[in-house]
Amino acid sequence: DHLVNQIAAGEVVERPAAVIKELIENSLDAGCGQIEIDIEQGGVKRLRVRDDGCGIPREQLELALSRHATSKVSELADLEAVATLGFRGEALPSIASVSRLTLTSRAEEDAESAWEVSVGADGRLVSPRPAAHPRGTSVDVRDLFFNTPARRKFLRTEKTEFDHIEQVVRRVALARPEIGIQLRHNGKGILSLGASGGDESRVLERLDRLLGKGFGEQSLAVDESAVDLRLYGWVMRPAFSRSQPDQQFFYVNGRMVRDKLVTHAVRQAFSDVLHQARHPAYVLFLQTPSRLVDVNVHPAKHEVRFRESRQVHDFIYRSLHRRLSQGTL
Ligand code: ADP
Ligand code: MG
Asked: What does the record list as coiled-coil region(s) (predicted)?
């Protein structure tokens, strides 16, 4: 089973940033309000994610580390909804099989203390012991790939690995302004984002922090709907666009995607209205019923497959075309 987990880890856990993505998604699924992320040496030495979510009760701690144990699929119908975020019960055991992992958690019902389990080098679970932790969960991942040297060899410099981690955190931070997020690298604060509390001006402030000063103020708000489709978010007025290739954020049902069809529709709208082909800057969210989209083409990639791709393309194009034409650009 340890070996099966390691093989799965090969697909799931390409690099430290992939670990962070899975751990953050678990924290979000747990209904947290705050996430603290501590990274050492680009994540290779240590990654720690701490949340204030629902926690894992003592008797489910070991289960959380076993393969295909997910608490999130109660019926088959759920499977589609769950498929939009992460996959099913593979992340923690996969990560644990290629690192030294400790899981500490306290659920509402753990009255006296928090509990902690860890995985030994042989893949065996050390049974739960009492620990100190407020309500919520910490996952501590040390020495990533220590037992898979081939994979370790593919890692880049500490800086590159950390850049990937920061990118993952930024993507989540843009999509979930209601969550407070702290990111530290080697003890140094990198991002400190307060929860928006539903306050629009604090949402715009976060956009500024993540995309550069002025984005919140200079951008144009978008919110367009059609049957089964809604597109909302912000596009940067081109006059202020810095034409950077890393200012394009598109989410489908909350999950960041990089998709040819989507990118084409957005670029086409920009170039038809503004007659220019610079990189448009945008943060856009597309909502559509999960039966009309498959975002799980590959868990670690960012593609989507729409059932009615032509319709989606045209909706995005028309929505942005209309908004850009109206906007006082
Ligand atoms: P999945 O997220 O697909 O269910 P994971 O391997 O990522 O699979 O997690 C396994 C289980 O561990 C989850 O279903 C959940 O019950 C529990 N879990 C993991 N992380 C957290 C967390 N941060 N807070 C609460 N529960 C968690
Ligand atoms: Mg998960």
From this structure: none
pTM value is 0.89
What does the pLDDT look like over 204-233, one tens digit per residue? 999 999 988 788 788 899 999 999 999 999
Query: Is 141 touching ligand 1 by the criterion CB < 6 Å?
Result: no
- Residue 94 CA, closest ligand 1 atom number: 6
ipTM for the assembly: 0.99
Rounded to the nearest angstrom, the distance between the alpha carbon of 61 and the centre of ligand 1 is 10
Residues 6+ apart with CB under 8 A from 163: none
CB of 236 within 6 A of ligand 1: the answer is no
All structural domains of the chain, each given as residue ranges with its CATH number in brackets, are: 2-193 (3.30.565.10), 214-326 (3.30.230.10)
For ligand 1, say whether the CB of 91 is within 6 Å of any of its atoms: yes
pLDDT digits (tens, 9 = 90+) for 24-64: 999 999 999 999 999 999 999 999 999 999 999 999 999 99
Return the percent helix, strand and coil in the chain, to nearest 5: 40, 25, 35
Q: Is the CB of 233 under 6 A from ligand 1?
A: no
Q: Which helix (H) or strand (E) holds 156?
A: none
